[in-house]
Design goal:
Elements lengths: L7 H9 L10 E6 L5 E8 L7 E6 L2 E2 L5 H20 L10 H5 L3 E8 L15 H20 L2 H36 L19 E6 L1 H10 L5 E6 L11 H6 L1 H10 L16 E5 L4 H17 L1 H5 L3 E4 L4 E5 L2 E5 L2 H9 L8 E4 L8 H9 L6 E3 L4 H5 L2 H10 L3 H21 L1
Parallel strand pairs: 3-5, 6-7, 6-8, 8-9
Antiparallel strand pairs: 1-2, 2-5, 3-4, 9-13, 10-11, 10-12
Helix pairs in contact: 2-4, 6-12
Amino acid sequence: MFQFPGGLADHLREQIAGRECATTDFFVTRQDFPGEAGRVECAVAWPLWSDGSYSWYCNTIPTPDGGTHEAGLRAALVKGIRAFGDLVGQKKAKDISPEDIMTGSELMLSVFIRDPQFQSQTKDRLTSPEAATLVERAVRDHFDHFLSDNMERGKALLSYVIERMDERLARKAEREVKRKTATSARKLRLPGKLTDCSSNGPEGTEIFIVEGDSAGGSAKQARDRKTQAILPIRGKILNVASATSAKIHANQEIADLIQALGCGTRKDCVADNLRYERVVIMTDADVDGAHIATLLMTFFFQEMPEIVRAGHVYLAQPPLYRLTAGTKSLYAMDDAHRAHLEATEFKGKKVEIGRFKGLGEMNPMQLRETTMDPKSRAMLRITLPQEYEERAVVKDLVDRLMGTNPAHRFAFIQENAARMDEDAIDA
């Protein structure tokens, strides 16, 4: 067992192992949340010439995919360094992004909160909405003091982050030149149903894949025209895991999707040619929506694995319920989140509950606020696990569940039904 009397700071110091950093002192903080809601502890160093690494924890449970506590820390660091840049008259600081201050850092974050919510049973990602605000507020004040209490230290870190920002913007400019050329060459061949964004470069742009004209119409009104594109698809797309190559390329919905993304498929798939920074699957928060999302993810895994591997594919998280009591309204992602809100935010109050039957039933303002606005939404990044890279376990599972042989699906259900019953009883 490893033990570090100084907490995460000692752990990080051992991990850095004498490497030269942008600042001699690490940023270290430990802060209780208001009202006995928990606490946060973090330690961050910025080694020179390093790829860096992140370690996230919630209630001592590792959350390798980060989550809402990660989002709170990102917000605190980027807002703090921008404010310090403004304080010392560095005008370029306003363009600093979370990527500039996070990439390459050695970072450890641990939070303790009550009744944490996770993305799945493996608890790889924290989804508790309140964690982002709690962490941001707790860390931000300490980070501001870290920068301003020692101006030379603050300026050293700012200079390091600005240098990374300049490198990022240079790469962006190169991609924009490539994209403008590629877009001009195929502009007339983009699918007619695509409502494209006006930005010339992929940086900061998103394409939302939605099901049906109703959801597409609402999304078009809710979007940011400069950075967000909308591509409606009709119903459930072809299951590529059980289709021949000829049938896949003859399918109009898939052809439109391939044209809109512009990065090619299979061995010809090049992530750098993707016309958008993010590809967002946005389907209804019900069983049919989950099925469509599964078919789309199967398509990306099989036909465009490179853009998944590069972290460009996301799953939107539209709410299923709207809870209202008096003038207060909150959104719930699912039944568990709804129960949590009723027991906490609306405890003892008469709550009016509205259930969204689909994205098309949400007005554009609601859709923007809950699902499309980067300032208030939550999204899941789709990744390829190590097992997929090795191809054995995950490929076999996809073949069994999505392939042509229904007997394989029936066998899977039989194998897992007993365990699911046990889990339901335990819950």
